[in-house]
């Protein structure tokens, strides 16, 4: 890599976890993206890409939303789909002691390429690994272990209250993706963890599949 013998450097995951002798075997696996940096908190000079590998047939995602919501006992399914999208924001803002801000925007112009539904919040954001986990079908947000970080570490199911108050809408880890492909044909998740300078972006689209 052209590193001088007297130059200090670190190797980290995209989640800014430094690779050491103790955690090498756990963190360094086939397909994992690593950074070679001068320090753990070094600002990246350019955008980077991290590949996410999973092998369901694309119909598993693209058509599951249509099936799920058309089977909703004859009710208008659109509010249920929007509720799934808002669930991520409810979860992300659940620990905020001040004002929780969740905005829902319906974009009908060409600013996003096509008409879009945007859900924006002031939550704590997701790391690259948490965003990776969101992309994995059937990975419950309450049971992700190890480096599969969860947004709900130590989660205890609350006493029965309206689901809108406890972010239980998408309990089985499928609702958000089903909702996306019921409403449209692609999802773009942009997230900045509250304690990090990195901004992470994930795109899932029928066209890419």
From TrEMBL:
The family database entries (Pfam families) matched by this protein are listed as: HATPase_c_3
Top-rank lineage group of the source organism: Eukaryota
Q: Which InterPro entries match?
A: HATPase_C_sf, SMCHD1
Q: Which GO terms describe its biological process?
A: double-strand break repair
- Protein's UniProt name: SMHD1 protein
Instruction: Tell me which species this is from.
Output: Podilymbus podiceps (Pied-billed grebe)
């Amino acid at each position: 890599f052209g590193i001088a013998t007297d130059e200090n450097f670190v190797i980290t995951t995209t989640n800014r976890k430094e690779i050491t002798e103790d955690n090498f075997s756990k963190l360094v696996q086939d397909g994992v993206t690593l950074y070679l940096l001068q320090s753990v908190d070094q600002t990246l000079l350019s955008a980077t890409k991290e590949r996410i590998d999973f092998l369901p047939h694309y119909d598993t995602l693209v058509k599951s939303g249509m099936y799920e919501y058309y089977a909703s006992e004859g009710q208008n399914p659109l509010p249920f789909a929007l509720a799934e999208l808002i669930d991520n924001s409810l979860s992300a803002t659940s620990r905020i002691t001040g004002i929780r801000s969740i905005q829902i925007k319906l974009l009908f112009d060409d600013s996003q390429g096509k008409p879009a539904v945007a859900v924006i919040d002031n939550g704590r954001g997701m790391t690259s690994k948490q965003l990776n986990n969101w992309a994995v079908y059937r990975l419950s947000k309450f049971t992700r272990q190890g480096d599969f970080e969860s947004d709900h570490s130590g989660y205890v199911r609350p006493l029965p209250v309206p689901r809108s108050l406890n972010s239980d809408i998408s309990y089985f880890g499928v609702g958000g993706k089903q909702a996306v492909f019921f409403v449209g044909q692609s999802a773009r998740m942009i997230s900045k963890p509250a304690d990090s300078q990195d901004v992470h972006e994930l795109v899932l689209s029928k066209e890419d599949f």
